[in-house]
Amino acid sequence: MSNLFRDRSPYSWSFRIGSGRRVLDLPLVAWLTAIWILLWGTLSWANLVNGIVVAVCLCLAFPLPAVDIGLRLRPLGILRLAVYLLYDMFSSSVEVTRQIFAKGPYHAAVVAVPLRVRSDLMLTATAVAVSNVPGGSVIEVRRSTATLFLHVLDADDPGEIESARRQVWRMEELVARAFGTAEDIAHAARPVPEGDTPP
Amino acid sequence: MTTLHDVEEALLTASLVMILVAGALLLYRIWYGPSMLDRAVALDVAAALIVAGIGVKAAHDGDGFYFPVMLVLAFLGFTGSVGIARFIAVRDRPSVRADGTEDHR
Amino acid sequence: MNAWARAADLTGAVLLFLGCLQSLLGVIGMLRFPDVLSRSHAATKPQTLGTLLVLVGVALRLRHGIDVGTLALIVFFQFLTSPVASHLVARSAYRTGQTGSRGLLRDDLDPQLSDMEQREE
Fold first, then answer.
1. Residue B68: cis peptide before it, omega within 30 degrees of 0
2. How far is Cα of residue B36 from the mean position of the Cα atoms in its chain?
3. Is A18 in a helix, a strand, or coil?
4. How far is B98 from chain C (nearest CA, A)?
5. How many residue contacts between B and C have a Cβ separation below 8 Å?
6. Distance between CA B105 and CA A139 in Å, rounded?
7. Mean pLDDT by 10 residues, chain C (121 residues)
8. CA–CA min distance A20, chain C (Å)
9. For residue A84, with 0-12 CB atoms within 10 Å meaning exposed, 13-18 middle and 19 or more buried, which class applies?
10. pTM, 2 dp
């Protein structure tokens, strides 16, 4: 069962209708049906059937290009990522709250963090996850070099910058283990680029 | 039993009061800016506050009648500030005081 | 009404209280921080945590399967969409030079942006 999730792209559960580019994407249909039922607020057969009909009609009327973005769902990795994100959200909120009531002046910094993963999906997921690390918000993403640019509050302390960078790399590895292909995980397991120089 | 109920009532009322105070403070930020981007950020926070306020009401009444409203706000609440950041803020600078320093109120 | 339900109700109320407190602290941060980038810190992180706590509190008090599903969906979308807005605002703030009156202690992005502009010319 876990093999089903680990080694196949969700996009392998889709079939082609007719000769055109109309593709019925089963995970998408299931997701749309779930949202339909939640919006109606009652779980009944009528809602389920109607939801499936609407979702199939939508998928056929507005076909999406069938691109493999390299998404894999790994339940254990997702669980670990969720627990870590929860812990991280608490600690970053406490940190920001402390800074709110600390006496200024603040010295902020913009720090470049080169990532080790290359795929677009991993880059996006890492950037979303990183928006929650203590004192880091993403200003710019350079796709060609896979570099994130973070705004770090309270950068007077040089350890703060270094710890923000470490946290991004840790997050990157967790994200790759939750959603990445085997190649992404191998990329993320490489040693971090040492030194303080921007690439 | 009744004391427990009173404690819960008090907690919910305090929550609602805090949301209202937060909303009032947010109005100050929206009013004074100083730049359009500050207002964009404040707009985002306002959506989150509305979601939280509806949540308190739902918890008090014990029904999920307004959940679709929360869902749509969580879904589309970011579009307003994205629009501001993308199309308005480029032409916008914080106002400059008489002595030449920027006004970061 | 058994003891478990009462405990869940009370925990839900406490979580609602904490979530609203967190939202209020975030708004106070928005008033106190000196520039847009810092303010967007204060806006995103405490707000996401506050919304999460409030919605978990509501879920604990309502306890119907379908309501909990809707609340989980709300948390999911909030978590997914709020970084989008904060990133675009931060990007726009950086590019219009609103990085605070005292400037940045260190800036890795500026040389790269200037490089790119030179190459385009």
1. no
2. 16
3. coil
4. 15
5. 186
6. 23
7. 84 92 89 82 83 91 84 86 84 75 66 59 45
8. 33
9. middle
10. 0.82
